[in-house]
Amino acid sequence: MRLVIDIARTHLISKPRQTIIAMLGVTFGIGMFIAMVSLMTGLNNFTEELTMTSSPDIHIYHDVTESRPSVIEQVNVGGINKVHHQKPKNETPRLRNAHQIAALIRRDPRVTGVAPSISSQVFYNYGPVQLSGNILGVDIIEEDKLFELREKMKEGRIEDLKANHDGIIMGRGLARKLNARTGDRVVITTPQGYTMTLKIVGVFQMGLGSIDNVRSYANLSTVQTILQQDHLYVTDINIKLKDLLLAKSIAPGYQRMYGYKAEDWETANATFLTGNIIRNILTYSVSITLLIVAGFGIYNILNMTIYNKMKDIAILKAMGFAGRDVKQIFMIQSLVIGFIGSLLGLAIGYGLSLLIAQAPFNGGDFISLDHFPVNFDPKYYIIGIVFGVTTTAFAGYMPSRKASKIDPIEILRG
Amino acid sequence: MNTTAFEPHVLHTHKITKYFYEPDKFQVLKEIDLTVHKGEFLSLVGKSGCGKSTLMYVLSTMDTDYEGELEIAGVRLTDKTQNELAAFRNKHIGFVFQFHYLLPEFTTLQNVMIPALKLGKYSRKEVEDRAYAKLEMLGMKEHALKPTSKLSGGQQQRVAIARALINDPDIIMGDEPTGNLDSYNTHVVFDIFQELTHTYKQTIIAVTHDEEFARKSDRIVEMSDGHIVR
Ligand SMILES: Nc1ncnc2c1ncn2[C@@H]1O[C@H](COP(=O)(O)OP(=O)(O)OP(=O)(O)O)[C@@H](O)[C@H]1O
Ligand SMILES: [Mg+2]
């Protein structure tokens, strides 16, 4: 075996230009793969984390737009009934027995947090201008357990909300639009026309424009007052699970048991997750294409080497090298090319990733981001090297097999 | 007169017959019976195209597409697998070709060492010592570390002989080993072969077109049209 390795090494060293060109093919393929995958998964993880932290594992609410059987269908069961443009019933989004439901769910061992809340559309009055947004009535301590609000506070503390009955914590984008800061008072108006003056006790930033530009948190009782509802009024229950991957299987059970819509995070973020999948497909298909091109390079160079070394192969066989030894000699060459080429590729990919991570990038209002998020997960470096070595092994196999089948007599006969 | 006839035989064939099918069916070897004894220096002669090279490829075990029986060093080689035959060649047969066929990327010493490293019987150090010994015997020791491309034709052929000898084979086969050499180097190679056979009891079969070379060897086997005629 050592002899076979020595011969392979001598072949590689004696034709340095060929060897280097073959390696660079792999290096380029793997380098691009690492750079692309680092950026793509970095972006994916960043947005995923944002969405994940801003959406509950399971969200229970009263879906008033859910289609319901029409009256005629209830009366004339099984008949041919035609109902055009059925409107929803005039129902409030109120969850009946919300606190009992919350208490029951809290006992479920798979659940780590339950937070009942009220959400409502409101207008924020800014001089003559009205900005539409929403207000969330929460138990801020419970809400923090689910969404880690404490870490997202830019001004003030979440405890300040507990202490202030007419306090709100405002999204940073919204505060900026209103030109308001902590301590200022804002006037809000509900769609029903109720008006109230509230005091900003803190500012938060989730990092997602769709939240930061419209939302404020207030105490449950504050929002109940605004909406002129009783102190049991709740419209949403948010749930955090021990294992968020179970959400999809747990949600339907709750929906059946409590009779309200229970939506898991995967369903709620379906469009966003599809985007992730498409980005991954893109990354892998571009990388595979690059590697196939590199593979063809190796295939060509090995074929050329073997063609030039026909005589040597014949001599080796005459001296007692079996076909398998000859195959090994050339497989080792392609694997060494693949391995060193991939290692260089990892280094270059890492370098590129570092550069990308430093490039300034403005996420605009949509995402609060000043640099590209780049993923340095070692997993992708392992995939990269496995990928590179496998491609070269495939590319090298055919020429190596051909070499092992060379009939020495035909060459020696001249 | 022929004392070697009393030595045990190293190579023996029984009715070796071979056909080529391309372009037409054509019998190149016709029931070749040949016995070669230990320490014999045998010349194989005959007109161009009579089948000498073809016979050598069969004897060398590289060509297995024949009928009849082949036995070398007491081992029946007919019907062995390619891998078994490769291992057998490595241990028991040494080759010297018309064109020197050294591996150009390796030094003289490495070329000589390769078959022994392949055999794996001796440590690397021992193999190196043995290779030096063979090179010294052939007057090539001072060229040991040169790349083979820097050697003359005669020198290359001596390195090829050293390589053929490295595993102490039972038989050395050469297809026109002096065919590409000038008369001086032909003499050098002949003298080496003679010394090997007479002093070291090495067995050698060499195809040659050189009448003087053949005449001075121990025994001449002449082929004509696929038959052994003498
Ligand atoms: N692969 C082959 N296919 C068909 N015919 C072949 C093949 N190789 C050799 N022959 C024919 O077989 C005959 C014997 O060839 P061989 O090479 O053994 O001759 P030779 O005695 O070595 O000749 P020379 O002295 O010129 O080397 C020739 O007629 C040749 O044309
Ligand atoms: Mg010939």
UniProtKB/TrEMBL annotation, chain A:
Output this protein's name.
Answer: ABC transporter permease
The record places domain ABC3 transporter permease C-terminal at 285-408
- Would the keyword Repeat turn up in this protein's UniProt record? no
Regions crossing the membrane: 20-43, 281-302, 334-360, 380-398
Q: Name one GO biological process term.
A: lipoprotein localization to outer membrane
Keyword field: Cell membrane, Membrane, Transmembrane, Transmembrane helix
Is Cell membrane tagged as a keyword?
yes
Q: Name one GO cellular component term.
A: plasma membrane protein complex
Where does the MacB-like periplasmic core domain start and stop, copy by copy? 19-243
Broad class of where this protein is predominantly found: membrane
Cell compartments where the protein resides: Cell membrane
* Similarity section: Belongs to the ABC-4 integral membrane protein family. LolC/E subfamily.
Q: How does it sit in the membrane?
A: Multi-pass membrane protein
UniProtKB/TrEMBL annotation, chain B:
Q: Give start-end ranges for the coiled-coil region(s).
A: none
Per the UniProt entry, the signal peptide is: none
Keywords per UniProt: ATP-binding, Nucleotide-binding, Transport
Q: Which PROSITE patterns match?
A: ABC_TRANSPORTER_1, ABC_TRANSPORTER_2
Instruction: List the molecular function annotations (GO) for this entry.
Output: ATP binding; ATP hydrolysis activity; transmembrane transporter activity
Tell me the InterPro entries matching this sequence.
Answer: AAA+_ATPase (IPR003593), ABC_transporter-like_ATP-bd (IPR003439), ABC_transporter-like_CS (IPR017871), ABC_transpr_LolD-like (IPR015854), MacB-like_ATP-bd (IPR017911), P-loop_NTPase (IPR027417)
Q: Which family does it belong to?
A: Belongs to the ABC transporter superfamily. Macrolide exporter (TC 3.A.1.122) family.
Q: What is this protein called?
A: ABC transporter ATP-binding protein
Q: Which organism is it from?
A: Chryseosolibacter histidini
